[in-house]
Amino acid sequence: MRKTLRLTLCCAAAILLAACHHTGDTPSSSTPQPDYSAVQLPPFSADSAYRYVADQLQFGFRTPGSRGHAECAAYIARQMARWCDTIVTQDFTTTLWDGSEAHGRNIIASINPTADKRILLAAHWDSRLWADHDPDASQHRLPVMGANDGASGTAMLMELARAMQALPPSVGVDFIFFDLEDQGTPEWADSYADNTWCKGAQHWANYPHRPFYHALYGVLFDMVGTASPRFTKEEVSRHYATAITDKLWRVAAAIGEGQTFVSEASPAILDDHLYINQVAGIPTVDIVQNDATGSFFPHWHTRTDDLSTIDVKTLQTVARVVLTMIYADYPPAAPKNSLS
Fold this sequence. Notes:
8 strands; 6-stranded mixed β-sheet
């Protein structure tokens, strides 16, 4: 990803000066809370999600312009077409931090595309061009495999789509795979700019796949596969999507996942959700690994972010929390009675 303490502090300062956005629907304190442990969930398989991570890594680096990038884009669209009603690919051209041109592709897949009420689930699918946090400085200009940082969120969306099509919620769902999220200014560059990150999200937020598109809320998955996970309430999520952030962590606590979804405020992070919140105006929460040491996880932006970093238990935990929140509010439509 693209997050350092320098970015975090700059982003937080900007947010404190920004006007407040709407934060999404949430029950009042007097509204009875559902029994989250009793919510009927679709058949999510963490083993399948793990396999989708491995599938992506088989293409190699998913860096802009590479063969792996093109093959993985086709793979994602092909897989999502199996489970979703519509697939839209959004090609765009942008400029990277060094002035070079890059071509990106956002992929948007939808379940129940005609529903007025919608939920947005997102992740980035590219992997980073530079391992600028590798402990070996000789590796800093080499690409990253991005098993956790990229492939885990993508695999999460894929398996969520597979599970949800088997038991659709009573709401429309849009799965958005953002490209060129992780190609921002490397640590070894002489200058830096925030807008070199999250290029796919910036493009989509300004030019959504459907005119006047809106969703009730969004959930962004970033680095959701590492062992011993720790997810905190980061500042962008708390500021722009207060209600949905609080609700997600409340659900996690109710189903016994409070040690993973730690109810702790943490600094702002420059991620795709910033542009979904600020530009598209959709309250969006970021589920992103937040190590207690202040980093993300030991293999972040290194050459060792490979399949060994992925834990199926973490994938299952994240999916269970998000699915519980969605299906508690939007349970599957009751089957039609065949008896007249």
